[in-house]
């Protein structure tokens, strides 16, 4: 929807790597579709199926379970349809001798000066990442996690922190049980890290009031579907928060009105059905009375 068909194909052709934080389904189920789409975008229509561009394999960085899944998925495909994919574990790319790390920093064209995967507090083999650009920026993504001091230390001075905030501040006990972060905990990590700007993501739509409070922050905004954020826009991005908040409140109000109208329609339909049933029962009673009277004769 954002780029259109041709624009999406161009973006897919430029895609260099996919980084997956952990093996929970909501973070990787779209991977097969994405890999297939990249393969189609990289294969000119004039070439037969299975033809390859002279481009490096798409690098997938993730936990061990994702690597095993990729091996099994590739084994199910005919040789001509197998995807050009390379895999590296999150921790492996921290090794200066890692081939994939060297390629990312020296040959990928991403402009990276360094990258570091950081083990976080969610499920086994769960990771956050710290990316440093040659231009001087630092980008930190938390993945799913409890507030993590190791990530705060590794990402100190971040230009942009993207941190999960699954639960509201009032749901901190639930966040603890589910090994997620609340909005206030995520903002606490941002403060400890000294992040210039923070985007709260993985945020449940149930917590609109908490999201509204976050909009008012001078250094944080709440992610939404389709959000595109350029690092050059960070100084003024929080100024856009109030009108965006008003927009989503208006959307929520329209949805609430539509839901109320639908509820009213269903209630009216239920009343209509019940009335019809009552009329039907009354008619059946009248018919039964007439039949009994007729069976008794003129009397």
Helix content range = 40-55%
The main sheet comes to:
6 strands, mixed
Number of helices: 10
Tell me the number of strands.
9
**Largest sheet, order of strands side by side?**
4-5-6-7-8-9
Distance between the termini: 80 Å
> From N to C, what is the helix and strand string?
HEHEHEHEEEHEHHEHEHH
Notes on the structure:
With 299 residues, the chain is α/β, with parallel strands linked by helices. The chain has ten helices and nine strands. The strands form two sheets. The protein has a six-stranded mixed β-sheet. It has a three-stranded parallel β-sheet with strand order 1-2-3. Helix 1 (4-14) packs across helix 2. The model has no long low-confidence stretch (mean pLDDT 87).
């Amino acid at each position: 929807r954002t780029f259109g068909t041709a624009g999406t194909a161009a973006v897919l052709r430029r895609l260099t790597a996919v980084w997956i934080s952990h093996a929970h389904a909501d973070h990787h189920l779209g991977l097969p579709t994405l890999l297939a789409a990249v393969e189609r975008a990289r294969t000119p229509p004039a070439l037969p199926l299975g033809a390859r561009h002279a481009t490096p394999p798409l690098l997938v960085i993730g936990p061990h379970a994702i690597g095993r899944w990729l091996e099994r998925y590739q084994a199910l495909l005919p040789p001509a349809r197998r995807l050009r994919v390379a895999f590296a574990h999150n921790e492996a790319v921290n090794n200066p001798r890692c081939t994939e790390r060297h390629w990312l920093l020296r040959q990928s064209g991403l402009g990276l000066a360094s990258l570091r995967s950081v083990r976080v507090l969610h499920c086994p083999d769960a990771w956050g990442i710290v990316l440093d650009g040659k231009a001087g920026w630092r980008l930190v993504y938390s993945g799913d996690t409890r507030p993590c001091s190791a990530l705060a230390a590794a990402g100190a001075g971040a230009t942009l922190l993207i941190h999960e905030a699954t639960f509201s501040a009032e749901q901190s006990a639930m966040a603890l049980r589910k090994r997620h972060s609340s909005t206030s905990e995520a903002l606490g990590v941002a403060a400890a890290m000294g992040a210039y700007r923070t985007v709260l993501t993985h945020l449940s739509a149930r917590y609109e009031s908490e999201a509204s409070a976050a909009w008012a922050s001078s250094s944080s905004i709440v992610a939404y579907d389709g959000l595109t954020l350029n690092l050059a826009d960070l100084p003024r991005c929080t100024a856009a928060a109030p009108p965006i908040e008003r927009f989503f409140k208006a959307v929520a109000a329209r949805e609430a009105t539509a839901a109320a109208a639908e509820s009213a329609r269903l209630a009216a339909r239920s009343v209509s059905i019940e009335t019809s049933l009552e009329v039907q029962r009354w008619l059946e009673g009248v018919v039964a009375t007439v039949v009994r009277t007729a069976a008794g004769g003129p009397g």
